[in-house]
Design goal:
Length: 297
């Protein structure tokens, strides 16, 4: 009887090590199951949050694609030499006019270093600041996005890609870069199509001539404060001016050649040059973009 009872006791009470192994395994299984459930819930919650809060970028992306197409169009018009020609005759002002027309601002621009002798240019833009057109657009459906464009010879050279927007203001001051660009656009000269193609022929390449041009074209109001610096651009009859119109820096290219009527003479300087606003930057910006290989040799 004693032996039988002892045998039953052994069957009912497993060894201490076996108990610990079973207990540890059970806890591990429970923790794993809990983690899987929590993880699935977390992922589902995150995806649901993204679906609810992620902005619809399609409207801004459409503007970015349209901007690329407009630049391609600019690069296939201009030079009138016979035969196969590429490369429109335009300056940074053409880019700015197109960017503003699509509701954005130019962050920075210039030639790519070490690329095609400086004939490949890059423009970084922020779109979604102002919905193009006259209709109102829900801001949540029109988020701020940034894009990079590169271009060189002809329409085929234009490349568009997305890029992260700056994390801080371009001028290094605290605050939102989007708000900085919005204020910059708000300080544009008056006029619906202020950045447009127009001739500057007939105006003296002097501060007084600049003042006459701005007033005659209705580009400034009587209350606007205009300060300027100037420099001659090469041997041609071209002068460029860096203008501080109230709080916004602009560049002006004064050109007497007949082809200059196809250019945008006045434009908002890129955001990264707003502080400097000098003739050195204006000279570089006023250089003709788009090279005709037939004329470039």
């Amino acid at each position: 009887m004693t032996t039988h009872a002892a045998r039953e006791q052994q069957l009912r009470e497993p060894a201490a090590g076996q108990t610990r192994r079973r207990s540890t395994g059970a806890r591990a299984l429970m923790l794993t199951a809990t983690a899987l459930v929590a993880g699935a819930t977390g992922v589902a919650g995150t995806l649901l949050h993204q679906n609810v809060t992620a902005p619809d970028t399609s409207a801004v992306d459409a503007q970015a694609a349209a901007l690329a197409q407009d630049i391609r169009g600019d690069l296939t018009t201009g030079f009138a030499s016979p035969g196969r020609t590429y490369g429109g005759q335009f300056t940074q002002g053409t880019i700015v006019a197109q960017v503003v027309a699509h509701g954005g601002a130019l962050l920075r621009a210039g030639p790519e270093q070490g690329r095609s002798g400086g004939h490949v240019h890059t423009a970084e833009v922020m779109l979604g600041l102002l919905p193009p057109g006259t209709g109102t657009v829900d801001p949540d459906a029109y988020p701020v996005r940034c894009y990079r464009y590169t271009f060189g010879f002809g329409a085929h050279s234009v490349k568009q890609s997305t890029m992260p927007c700056p994390a801080s203001r371009i001028d290094g001051n605290p605050g939102s870069p989007a708000a900085q660009m919005g204020v910059l656009l708000a300080h544009r000269p008056s006029g619906t199509y202020v950045y447009r193609k127009m001739a500057t022929a007939g105006y003296a390449h002097t501060p007084q001539g600049v003042t006459d041009l701005l007033n005659d074209e209705g580009l400034v109001a009587a209350v606007d404060n205009v300060r300027m610096a100037s420099a001659r651009a090469g041997g041609d009859d071209v002068h460029v001016f860096a203008l501080r119109i109230d709080d916004a820096c602009h560049y002006l290219r004064m050109d007497s050649s007949p082809s200059a009527a196809r250019l945008v003479p006045l434009w908002l300087a890129p955001a990264d040059e707003q502080e400097a606003c000098g003739v050195k930057q204006a000279l570089a910006a006023a250089t003709l973009y788009g090279i005709d290989p037939a004329k470039a040799g």
